[in-house]
Structure formats: C-alpha cells, structure tokens
Amino acid sequence: MSDLEPRVLLVDDDPAIHRTVARMLRRFEVCSAYSGPSAVREIEAALAGGADYALVILDVAMPGWSGLDTLEQIWKIAPEMQALFCTGSKLSHEELQRRFGDTDAILAITKPFSQLELAQAAQTLTTKWRLQRQARAHVDALE
C-alpha cells in the first residue's frame, strides 16, 4: 500500500453505492465486497498476500450479516482495521459501545452523505491507522 492510496474495502449490497463511493474517494484504492462473508474472504486473501486494508466502509443494513455483524467477524482477523458505517437507519453511540466497547476505531455517517463527509471520515481513519502502524514499528525497533 502506498501512502497516497490507502486501501479501503467497501461492503454494501447495492452496486450503485459502490460506484458512488469509488467516485467520491478517488485518492483511495477502493475495493468491493457485496456481503459480510465475501468481505471476510477478501480480507483473509489480502492478509495472506501481504496486503491489508486500512479501512472498511460498511452499510449497516444488508441481507444476511448486518454491517455490525460483519465488523465483528472482520475484527477477529484484522483487529487494527478502522471502520466507517454508512447508514440510512438510526445507529446510536450506545449500540456501537454495546457491540464493540469503547473504541475510537469507528465512525458513522448518515445516508445520504456528502463527498466531503465521506472523504473527511475516510482520511481521518486511514491517517489514524497509518500513524498507529508507524508508532508500533518505532516501538518494535526500540525493543
């Protein structure tokens, strides 16, 4: 992954959302999954190939696994991945805390979202992910 093109995985069952998000996040490398299980398979394959994702963008309401269910499974294999929920339904901070604990690795925006909202959230989370990796590498080098 280059610093200029953080890898982002979009998980949404609507192909139109995939086109819209890819257009809005042109400076990112956006990959697609259309269900929770396919997202987990994509992340497993990426990790096996030595590539990882900085951010997963998830629809909350999808057939089968919800976005919340999907993130629970993703964090079992990639616990450092940042998450951005895009939802047309109500998603409360309390619900996120109940499911994921007190974490700063999740942001949520409401559909319809603007390009500015999406780009700022993606930039914030991918920058945080990158800085955490750099700090960990420095600590490892000191040990």
In a few lines, what is going on in this structure?
The chain has 143 residues and is α/β, with parallel strands linked by helices. It has helices at 15-24, 36-48, 67-77, 93-100, 115-142, and strands at residues 7-11, 29-33, 55-59, 82-87, 106-110.
What are the key terms here?
about 140 residues, alpha/beta, Rossmann fold, five-stranded parallel sheet, 5 helices, 5 strands, globular
Q: Helices, strands, pairings?
A:
Blueprint: E1 7-11, H1 15-24, E2 29-33, H2 36-48, E3 55-59, H3 67-77, E4 82-87, H4 93-100, E5 106-110, H5 115-142
Characterization of the model:
With 143 residues, this protein is α/β, with parallel strands linked by helices. Helices cover 49% and strands 18% of the residues. It has a single domain, classed as Response regulator (Rossmann fold), CATH 3.40.50.2300. The protein has helices spanning 15-24, 36-48, 67-77, 93-100, 115-142; strands at residues 7-11, 29-33, 55-59, 82-87, 106-110. It has a five-stranded parallel beta sheet with strand order 2-1-3-4-5, sandwiched between helices. Helix 1 (15-24) links the parallel strand 1 (7-11) and strand 2. Helix 2 packs parallel to helix 3. It is globular and about 45 Å long.
Helix content: 40-55%
Biggest sheet layout: 5 strands, parallel
| Overall tally of domains | 1
Average pLDDT number: 93
- CATH top level class name: Alpha Beta
Q: In angstroms, what is the radius of gyration? A: 15 Å
Q: Do you know the CATH architecture?
A: 3-Layer(aba) Sandwich
CATH superfamily: Response regulator
Give the uncertain stretches in residue-range form. Answer: none
Q: State the end-to-end CA separation.
A: 25 Å
Per DSSP, what share of the residues sits in E-state strands of 2 or more residues?
15-25%
CATH topology: Rossmann fold
Alpha-beta classification: alpha/beta
The neighbouring-strand order within the major sheet is: 2-1-3-4-5
